[in-house]
Records
---
Amino acid sequence: MGTLRNTQSLAEEQIHDVLRNERRRAVLTHLQRTIGSVSLRELSVSIAEGESGESPPPTDLRESVYNSLHQTHLPKLDREGIVVYDKDRKTVTLDESAREVDIYMEVVSPYGITWASFYRALATIGLVVLLSAELEFPVFVRLDPVFLITVMLLAVAVSTSYQLWNRRWFVLWALTD
């Protein structure tokens, strides 16, 4: 293995099977937050820290995670074309098919709501505040509508930047295609 490869689209059943396991989801989440290859050791420590809530994680848990990733989870993700697992070098890299899986993983933000719900709420709040200013409600009558629009657009820009930063490996791949 060891090189990125183009594979056919993954079936929805394959994606659900991959995401059914917590450690495989943790592998994908860790790889999405990094650029390039990650060592199996780094990956196992990160996942063990997440499972135990301790840093450094207990040795027995780290070894258990290491072995399960090496023997089961990474070979499965490699066979599905989601990651490239180099068993000799013990390195893992996201493959292009990971984009298909990401759609199923990114439904909920780290704060427990979908990004679509977040942006819908942000737009609704902005419209209510702007309408309240235009209808001269007591608190809002003192605020300039241009200022309110600027604040809401700034909130959208900051949110979008945060979301893009968390998904930067997708953006980088899109730029290299």
Note: Residues 145-166 form the longest helix (22 residues).
---
Amino acid sequence: MIDMKTVFHSAGSRGFADHDWLKSNHSFSFSGYYNPDRIGFGALRVLNDDKVKGGRGFGEHPHDNMEIISIPLKGGLVHMDSLGNSAIIRPGEVQAMSAGTGIYHTEYNQDENLDVEFLQIWLYPDKRNVTPRYDQYVIPFGDKNVLHQVLSSSEDDSGVWIHQQAWFHMGEFDKDMSLTYKMKNPSDGLYIFVIAGSVITADCTLQARDGLGIWEIGEVPLTVTMGSKVLLMEVPMKY
């Protein structure tokens, strides 16, 4: 623990954009928010905490050479893309899209009256100009107090897979639970994002929507101080 490095991002220090139909908090520089100290965390480039009004959404727009992950927290998010995919993703699911050589997609709130909330996450790929693809996974949240792997670099592993040596885990935990995350690769970093509740790690107390990056460490102990939902993102740090 002595040699580890950390960077803390409180919920209130994030960038914020209010487009009326969309309210978005940016953990890292994005669109009109620029902070030279927050360009990303290794391969993790974007972590947006989005809230979209009923019946509104993102019109058709392009992406390329980026791995894009959506994790709904509330409501139903409709997805359509130029590959012919059409789906509704809801809380308890995760969606991944490899933009590769280029893809167009649309996202909008399924409900006309209620907000939809979701995390929009971008990672740099480890291969450029791949064939675009889409993936979706249902998280077995029926098992509490367990870190569920929801993303990896292999289609033979649990969760969605992307073109990057990265692993995401999520879990819902009761108060006073303790757990330890063991790094897959000791040269990677781990970005912890508390969706709800409170977690203590690396002598730092994280509240809802706080983020903490940790690297140069082999395993990360966490203590849950109240009922919590946590997202852990292990990514290469060479970017």
Note: The longest strand covers residues 219-236.
---
Amino acid sequence: MDGNGRWAQQRSLPRTAGHRAAETAVIDVIEAARSAGVEWLSLYAFSTENWNRPGAEVEFLMRLVRRVVRKHAPLLLARGIRCRFLGVADPRIPRELAQDFDDLAVLTADNRGMTLTVAFDHGGRRDIVEAARSLIRSGTPADEVTERIFADHLPFPDTPDVDLVIRTSGEQRISNFMLWQVAYAEWVFPEVLWPEFRAPDFLACLHTYRRRDRRFGGVPARTNGDPS
């Protein structure tokens, strides 16, 4: 969800105004995904690298995220959305915010409409390192380690591989996001800044994805006797 700062800058506003404006986009996309039948939606809200931002901005983000979580918990529960939080390992996260994350996860644990994973204090490399440590602690022999077994040691191992990554504002970087799970993901880079991203933009990205030929390293199926 990229472009909050640039959105604010274009309007001669502080960066925090862009983060505040992003709330509407978040809720709109969640509703659009659920209505479109998306079963798994992940939002990259705060990375391990985002701790390098100015302290005042980080503090604002922590307060903003807490307000958003508490405000929209009833809506997420009513919509049948199961909420999970990927990361949340850094001790700098306020205890109250971490507790709100836990409370929302427990509140929505039995929902089956859609799984919403919020990546907060998330880093793909860290997840892979932690999975390797978990494998070592389990005593799994090296020659028995497979991709499936390794994936079972990642956080939330029931999460399927990512099909589509949408990165707004035209930026074209992975930025340490779910590195294991995005191995065969399709990518779409809409130019719109995140605070202006809405349901029609999201649905346009889904349409782009559905038009792509997903071969996973193979070749297209033959049609009408065409051997190409």
Note: The chain has a mean pLDDT of 95.
